[in-house]
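Re: Re: token formats

Sure, here are both.
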Amino acid sequence: MKIEDNKVVDQYGAVLAEYIRGEWHTKDPAVLEFVKGSEEVKVRARNEKGHYVKDDPSTPDVNEAWTTKVVKKVSGKS
């Protein structure tokens, strides 16, 4: 399993869980254990071509240049 674009997918690309409105949605408790060590990180928004998205000045209450992404915490080997 791995986390891609706020979704947990298996090795075949099937979606096992989705991160919607601040919480994980899945039917499999093993997937919830897998995502327990994940966190939200603020990153620069990108378009389909991979270029940075700029902030739209006509919407002062929303910053389109930044978005949140869910990533798995990495722990060091002991």
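Second one below.
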Amino acid sequence: MVPASPLWSSPLWATILGLDPTNQTSNLIITLVLFALPLGINIISVALAARINNVAVFTEIIGTVVVALILIILFATRPIHPVSFLFDTGGVTGSGILAQLPFAALMGIFTIVGFELAADLSEEALNARVTVPKAVIWSVVSSAALGMVALIGFALAIPDLRKIAASPVPLADIFGYWLGSGLTKVFLLFVVFSIFSLSVVGTAATGRLIFSLARDNMLPVSSVLRRVDPRTRTPIPALLAATSLSLIFTIYGYLNDVYFGGNAFTVLITATATLPYLVYLATVLAYAWKRNRLMSLPGAFRLGGWAKPVTIAALAWVLLVLALLTIPKDFWGADVVCAIVELVAPAWWLLVLRGRLQRGEAGVSQVAAPVTGITPATAVE
């Protein structure tokens, strides 16, 4: 999900800048800039990326929860429709509601995602075995609770359902109806900065994953991807690789949709929802298999008697989400993309990685020091 955030926010930036939010060319230029800036920030300093993320905590609360509460208050003083509007299905009835359920579920699925960034960046954390699980729990709880407040506020404030549904910038139109153009641009700045910070953290997390796997010689050209710049103490090749992969998919989607009339962006966005949950499925299964061993580690985070029911609930939730994202016919295009991506890993293991592991040339026990002799984590010490 994260790599796509510059694409999602480009129409909002266009609105703030007074540009046409439906112009694909200007949106692409804005998107390219929004890819370049997080990359530059992460190359410059881990600490700078952390500061931006810390500021974004406040801007996200203001841009979502505070605005939602303001809209709820304005709606209460000047209701434009009954509260039952929250249950308006837009004319869809009967079995059609069940058919639309997977699409409606995307909202919650996209909200309750990204919590694994805390684990992806665990090398930057102190006492990671305890702090990272707590960060994951709090991120899920806070995003669910605050996200629900925001969704209720924004939904109640919709002035015209059909008009907003057809708008390229529905959030801007909702804000504009209640707050006027001036305040709308102010609050949109909070929103787009929060989304921008997600790109910064997402780039950092993806870069750290690539770096850590390359450090263990698990990836192609690992000798390059595990390099750390001696001056900035950041894994520049890994960060470049992470951004380049996202950029390739973005440009492909743009060319396909604009010049060939395809729906590549829809497919790719859906795939960005499915792929994380495939990773979550593998993680939950791996945890269930190794749970007793993990809980016996010194200083490990423990759920006590809740461990087993939480594991079962997590597995049920992931399987439900994957069913919603893969069974409907509209998502079959994304299923193909996910299947291709998921086949790359076993192919790489079969053709190359298995031999490296057998020869003791890869794996955690054979950690290769970066060429500088430092790791990105030392940049925050």
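The chain has a mean pLDDT of 84. The radius of gyration is 22 Å.
- S.
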